[in-house]
TrEMBL record:
This is Peptidyl-prolyl cis-trans isomerase. Belongs to the FKBP-type PPIase family. The keyword Isomerase applies. It comes from Pseudopedobacter saltans (strain ATCC 51119 / DSM 12145 / JCM 21818 / CCUG 39354 / LMG 10337 / NBRC 100064 / NCIMB 13643). GO terms for molecular function: peptidyl-prolyl cis-trans isomerase activity. It comes from the Bacteria. Residues 215-300 form the PPIase FKBP-type domain.
């Protein structure tokens, strides 16, 4: 009888032990998926694990001291699922490096201070980096958007693959200046910087008509593009854009730039976002997006 009881207890213990081994927490499951991803892509030796649970590697070295919560930091974000699916961009999750649209949105992150950046996973990655550094991180859901996910863009319990290209600049104006100069290198053209406003311009034809100033009424043929070449707005000679120039009538970059030529002239503008649509964006223009304009003011 005793042997039967002992056998039953032993059987139960083995069964319960087996059940315990098969039960994993969400953290353990996500840890396993990250490790499998690293092994599959021969990346295990390149990534380090942070104490908060994410894995990271330096793609490009930065400069100076490691960033702190009190630093301002601006960065281009590339965000994918661990399976390689691109995450759609939103006004707060600006995932569009190709248009030089940068994070964070200053409507939600005061002055770009790292201590206000969310989710905490992105903040913790920044706190591992330096200005000018490019860093890749594999982020479990519990340091990102958790079981609820984010809007319709990210499902709950999604492990994310993020690359942060941290701009080597300590203020928003300096960060946008860096991005515009990065773009200029891709064009093969030379632009002049208006040191007072931060606007860049290239006068193609100064024009021979009246000097354009506040109060001038103009007819213009223009093309507005994102830095990836996508046209977001335009007008034609058959249907020119007509307006009177005054403060508030147009984005500030247009008002400042158009006054550098005369009627009949043509100018290209590279406009930082703070002289355009800022942290709100507009339609196809994401928040924090610098813009290109080619503007010809028709002669009278």
């Amino acid at each position: 009888m005793i042997k039967k009881i002992l056998g039953f207890v032993l059987t139960c213990s083995i069964f319960l032990g087996a059940c315990t081994k098969e039960t994993r927490t969400l953290q353990e499951i996500e840890e396993l998926s990250i490790k499998e991803f690293l092994t599959k892509n021969n990346l295990t030796s390149k990534f380090k694990k942070d104490s908060t649970g994410f894995y990271y590697m330096t793609v490009k070295e930065g400069h100076g001291d490691t960033l702190q919560n009190y630093n301002q930091a601006f960065f281009l974000l590339e965000l994918k699922s661990l399976e390689g699916t691109d995450i759609a961009t939103t006004s707060l999750l600006i995932n569009s490096a190709e248009t030089y649209s940068y994070m964070p949105n200053l409507n939600s992150v005061k002055n770009g201070f790292i201590g206000y950046v969310s989710p905490i996973g992105l903040r913790n990655v920044l706190l591992k980096a330096k200005y000018g550094e490019k860093i890749r991180a594999l982020l479990p859901s519990y340091v990102m958007f958790g079981k609820n996910g984010y809007s319709t863009v990210i499902k709950g319990n999604t492990v994310l693959d993020a690359t942060l290209d941290i701009i080597n600049a300590k203020t928003q104006a300096a960060a946008e200046d860096t991005l515009i100069n990065r773009y200029i290198k891709t064009t093969g053209q030379s632009y002049t910087k208006d040191e007072e406003t931060g606007l860049y311009y290239r006068i193609i034809n100064e024009g021979t008509g009246a000097q354009i100033a506040i109060g001038s009424t103009i007819k213009a043929v223009y093309t507005g593009k994102l830095f990836n070449g996508k046209v977001f707005d335009s007008s034609t000679k058959d249907s020119p854009f007509e307006t009177t120039i005054y403060n508030g009538s147009l984005i500030t970059g247009w008002i400042e730039g158009i006054q550098k030529i005369k009627k009949g002239g043509r100018i290209e503008l590279l406009i930082p976002s703070y002289l355009a649509y800022g942290a709100n964006g507009s339609g196809a223009i994401l928040p924090n997006t610098p813009l290109y304009f080619d503007i010809e003011v028709l002669a009278e």
